[in-house]
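Exam revision sheet. Question 4 asks you to relate a sequence to its structure. Input first:
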Amino acid sequence: MRIQTSVLSLLLLLSRTADAFPSSTPAASADATTTKKTMEINVEKAFEESTFPITPADLIKRTKEILGPEIGIGTKDAGNCLAQDFEFCAAVVGPIGKEEYLKALGGFELEKSFDIDQNTFGFTVSPLQTNRVYWFGYQKAKLIAPFMGVAPKDNGEETLLDLPPQCFHMDFDEAGNVTEFGFYTVDRRYGNTGGLGGAFGYFYGVGKPLPIPEAHPYKPSFRFRALTWLGSLGRWMNRNKKSN
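Answer key, structure tokens:
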């Protein structure tokens, strides 16, 4: 009975809330027309005011060096490029420290099982965090050796993974060492790894996802689905009320 009462109360609230918002956009006030805000940051001014000693051009160059095969974001140089207070922080994993990060990547050994094309582009330094470099990547990978018990197809059919686009970032200290590295998926509907990036995308792509919800494609929770349904019902009730 309490649950039914709560649902009815929520439906009534949604109906009343919909009435509170007019269907047409009111005319802009005189004050609004005289106040103009720019959409873009004044990048040149931001960098002029920055106290970070490494220039944007040199910071991007340093980022590409660290991403290269000689350093491999700390996996090929014994972590020498990473600051002592380094942290890895992505959408789900992290923050984790330097030693744990190096140990985790060493355990995956993705490069031994996959031929990976990083397909990076758009390197830029943030004008609001002038020690941070952003870039994008569309990783594409071909299985060339067994991974998680899955071997390349014997019938000649290739196992190709097409990961969603990801936005990467790398923070630096004044000595040019990495203090933070991470990435986030920016389009979960792209590719064939269930919208998953990073190592989770490789596990899922070969049919061996980790047994945790975070390593599976996004699925709305029951509460979220219920609220979405109730919202739709409230709008339907509001339309019917206006038509009557």
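Marking note for examiners. Helices lie at 2-20, 30-34, 43-49, 56-67, 98-108, 110-113, 198-205, 222-243.
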